[in-house]
Amino acid sequence: MNRTEMISRIKHADKPWDLVIVGGGATGLGCAIDAASRGYQTLLLEQDDFAKGTSSRSTKLIHGGVRYLQQGNISLVLEALKERGRLRRNAPHLVHNLPFVVPNYDWWEGPFYGIGLKVYDILAGKHGFGHSKFLSREKTRKYLPTIETEGLLGGVIYYDGQFDDSRLAINMAQTAAEQSATLVNYMKVAGLIKEKQMTAGVLAKDMETGEEYEIRAKGVINATGVFTDQVLKMDDPGAPRMIMPSQGIHLVLDSSFLPGDTAIMVPHTADGRVLFATPWHDKVIVGTTDTMVEQILEEPRPLEEEIEFLLSHAAKYLEKDPSAEDVLSVFAGLRPLVTQGDAENTAAISRDHTIYISRSGLVTVTGGKWTTYRKMAEDAIDNAAVIAHLEEQRCVTRELHIHGYHNHPEKFGNLAVYGADAAGIKDLVRQQPELNKPVHPDLNIIAAEAVWAVRHEMARTLEDFLSRRTRALLLNARASMEAAPAAAELMAGELGYARHWVDSQIETYRELAKGYLI
After folding, report:
1. Which of 200, 403, 467, 504 fits 195 for a cystine, CB–CB 3.0-4.6 Å?
2. Confidence at residue 268, expressed as pLDDT on a 0 to 100 scale
3. Which distant-in-sequence residues (6+ apart) come within 8 Å of 285 by Cβ?
4. Collapsing DSSP states into helix, strand and coil, what is residue 370?
5. Whether the Cβ atoms of residue 68 and residue 76 lie closer than 8 Å to each other
6. Does domain 3-54+167-241+347-399 have CATH number 3.50.50.60?
7. How is the chain split into domains, by residue range?
8. Which pTM value belongs to this model?
């Protein structure tokens, strides 16, 4: 992917695009893959970086949703379990099985959760990741050596999926590009073009150069997540509110708090959320909260009470009680929950995805979750193709491999998340051995990854590289701040920028990263 080439396509377009997609998160990228793979001329515009918002701040789970099973939402669980299986098949370099143990401290928890998880297995059918079973106290301790043992009776083990969210998003962008889609980050949609009261394109501004574009399209899709209402207001200033955002935060701890490769799942916390403690990239992620918020920020910040909630709950289940000083990073994300009247709390708001078509023909797809992005995209393109009067083409994404597809990524060691692209990074190192140097002793990131991110993954800023092309910001915010100068120098060399760009990027990044420290 090359941004200059992508913008050149916009400038030289001699006819309207079939579809313009606004939003470069999981849903928008899924739509771009689906539309382009059907043969439609597709353009995706993202105001920041791909997966900058919610899509890079998830709990890193590809799952059916045990909580939705508790709520009786069987159809959502069935759909998610199917999509979970498809995603593992299409992106095995990023999606893998993860065992979860539900520890039992009351006599009724074992049979209650055990039966529920057996139903989960049955619903998964041929898409299953493994069979659940009851565990004795001793077996539970074997899987979870640092579990709180006081009052522990046993546990139930089951299997779900884990992934790297922003790495998958970048690979999805590459997949869409391979299907001939045009994708541009840092291109903000500032308005909609109307002809005879119908949506006929978008007004966009290049956030790097300030250049403005009138882009004509047969159909426009609003896939902007928590910013859905902003685009709906461009279409109709009187449009009712569709999104009720909920904030979830996650704490990142050292792996000593939960060694091994088994996660903890607590089905019901004080606020009704499911709590996870999961091993991820040699660290432990504890989350998540569910706090209704009014203000939608591009960079949401964790609330003190959210941090305290997770620390106190983690202490109930971990032998070693974590404190604020143990937190390597804390990150917050907003969920685009679709309103259904007056919901008293976010648990009562729909987790299903919604397709809404306005009178002007603007197609909005929102809600849902990472696991079901492909199905969301399929439904959105089915509708958008009809609205845009495009020739009917069937969806082909159910079996379409995601860029980087590789069945044995573990052979690439620390470069495993790149899948098949790891070979290209290794080639870079062979050509320039100095690029094998780590950017920081506490981060499993080498200099070649910064070069690769600029050349092949459209990384434009230091944050793009340290937060989303690699996960340094989320895994160890302080170390990422210390790595910033070396990474900025490498990126400037590739982008052709002078010293003042390096200094500005370092200052901007360090200010951002402070928000990830307690």
Report:
1. 200
2. 79
3. 59, 60, 250, 251, 252, 253, 276, 277, 278
4. helix
5. yes
6. yes
7. 3-54+167-241+347-399, 64-74+94-162+244-338, 412-514
8. 0.94
Condensed to tens digits (0 to 9), the pLDDT of residues 256-288 reads 999 999 999 998 776 677 899 999 999 999 998
CATH of domain 412-514: 1.10.8.870
CA atoms within 13 A on the CB side of 390: 26
- With contact defined as beta carbons under 8 Å apart, do 11 and 33 qualify? no
Distance CA 276, CA 288 (A): 7
Token pair 């099985």: residue: 97
d(CA 133, CA 100): 11
The residue whose two tokens read 């434009």 is 460
Q: What are phi and psi of 215, to 5 degrees?
A: -115, 115
The mean per-residue pLDDT over the stretch 441-451 comes to 97
Enumerate residues 6+ apart whose C-beta is below 8 A from 104. Answer: 110, 113, 140, 152, 153, 154, 155, 156
What one-letter code names the amino acid at 272? G
- How is domain 64-74+94-162+244-338 classified at the architecture level of CATH? 2-Layer Sandwich (3.30)
